[in-house]
Amino acid sequence: MQERERQPPTEIDSCTTINDPGRYVLTTDIEDSDANVCIDIQSSEVYFDANGHTIDGARTDEVLNESAQGPIPSPTSVAVGVGVDVPGSLSNVTVTDVTATRSVFGVYATDLTDLRVENTTASTNGYGIFVNNSSDSTVAHTAALDNFADGIDVNSLRGRQVTGITVTDSVALRNRYEGIAVWNASHSVVADSVAAENGEVGVLFESETQRASVNNTGANVTARANGYLGYKDGIGIFHASDSLVTNSTAVNNSGTGIAFDALDETVSNNTVVDSTATENSGGVLVINSTDTMVANVTASKNVLGILSVDRIDGLVITENTVDDNEFIGLIVDGGAGVAVTDNTVRNSGYVGINFANTEKALLAGNEVTGTRGDASFDVPFPAAGILLSNVSTSGVVDNTASENNVSGVLMREGNENLILLSNRASGNADDGVTVNASESIALILTTANNNGDDGIEVTASNRILLVGNTLDGNGDLAVEINESENVIRRGPPGWS
């Protein structure tokens, strides 16, 4: 290849087939091409440089719209701007500095290794950039704009599991479906890229089977205002394990900003860290992903800040800032061995932290303030700074739930075998701590001062231990006990 690079490139001024290795340069725009594949690359070791020129397939909006409906069309029967499609496998092909427009596929490549598409613009095509069954391939410094289907789509239609895909320094804007989509890939990266105003998911990693997609990374990605066709996510990691989202921003997407979603499967070891999710329906979503971490994320001004549900054993949610979310700041619903630690949750609309249906869990070092207790619809559970429901064999340690317009900590029902140690629940509009319909609960060294109603209220509960709590200046009683059995109270001098 080095010897060929020293030779002058072969000049091209019309649609053609490239059958031999070498360097090729386009010398003029190609307009109104009626070829099936305008630049048809049929060889390995090819460097095709369009030199900034446009390849215009001249297909109408009607044709392009039809191509985006239903199954992905075969490139052998539709217009392709630049195509690499050879039985067997080619390698080391570069397509650069192309503007591809009004073809069904702006750039289409399949069954390669070491493909590189760079400095290319694919606009107003059916599909902008489509790379199929091609491991160790890169799309870089590329823009996919206003395409009728996906902007940049890396796929494996023939069932081959691809690895080593990189999409970097690229933009996917105003495409009808996905902005950047990577399917059935492992050890792949989308980095330093922007996906905005796409109809469905902005940046998507998805696997058709649980094992097909592992070790993928979204780094320094911005996903903005995606999902105008429905409830769609900014950054979506679906049916994938061992994946990472880092230093990324998801803002104003119709669905969740950043989502790990396995539906009826279970995946594991996913991480989102050092990222921001604001003004989405949900900030961060984790469904059926075990041993997963959400850390150092800012989730603000969403309807739901951080939401984790179903099979989430071993989930860690730590050191996040969760502010000004319309309904609930942070939700854990399900799983075992979950740890929610050192989060700051402020100014939630209805509940700050909702902890439910979990066991052997730890809720520690969190600060929950400013919960308003407001909802614009009927809610089947009460408002609280920290709300616990059906939590068992767990620890609630060193949390602050203060200055909320509701109770600070509310154990709603079905909780058992909990230790609440060294928590602070002061200055709340209702009770500091409420224990309701729960069993075998120990409140030890709690500070619940200056609340609007009681310091601690126990209702319809059994085997409750109150030890060493500080309960001063509350609006009604230090401790109110209703319809409960086996309540043991021990406290410092002056406690009542």
Unreliable runs: none
Which sheet architecture does the biggest sheet show?
22 strands, parallel, barrel
Q: Within the CATH hierarchy, at the fold level, what is the topology of the largest domain?
A: Pectate Lyase C-like
Number of helices: 2
Radius of gyration: 28 Å
Beta-strand percentage range: over 45%
Anisotropy-based shape: elongated
The CATH homologous superfamily of the largest domain is named Single-stranded right-handed beta-helix, Pectin lyase-like
Give the second-level CATH assignment, the architecture of the largest domain: 3 Solenoid
Q: Bin the helical content.
A: under 10%
Distance between the termini: 87 Å
Mean pLDDT: 94
| Strands, count | 54
Question: How many structural units, i.e. domains?
Answer: 3
Under CATH at level 1, the class of the largest domain stands as Mainly Beta
Structural class: mainly beta
What's the arrangement of secondary structure elements?
Elements: H1 2-6, E1 10-12, E2 16-18, E3 22-26, E4 37-41, E5 46-49, E6 54-56, H2 61-67, E7 80-96, E8 99-101, E9 105-118, E10 121-123, E11 127-132, E12 138-140, E13 143-145, E14 152-155, E15 162-163, E16 166-168, E17 171-173, E18 180-183, E19 185-186, E20 189-191, E21 194-196, E22 203-206, E23 217-219, E24 222-224, E25 235-238, E26 244-246, E27 249-251, E28 256-261, E29 267-268, E30 271-273, E31 276-278, E32 282-287, E33 289-290, E34 293-295, E35 298-300, E36 304-309, E37 316-318, E38 321-323, E39 328-333, E40 339-341, E41 344-346, E42 351-359, E43 362-364, E44 367-369, E45 384-397, E46 400-402, E47 409-413, E48 416-421, E49 433-436, E50 439-444, E51 456-459, E52 462-467, E53 479-482, E54 485-490
Parallel strand pairs: 1-3, 2-4, 3-5, 4-7, 5-7, 6-8, 7-9, 8-10, 9-11, 9-12, 10-13, 11-14, 12-16, 13-17, 14-18, 15-19, 16-20, 17-21, 18-22, 20-23, 21-24, 22-25, 23-26, 24-27, 25-28, 26-30, 27-31, 28-32, 29-33, 30-34, 31-35, 32-36, 34-37, 35-38, 36-39, 37-40, 38-41, 39-42, 40-43, 41-44, ...
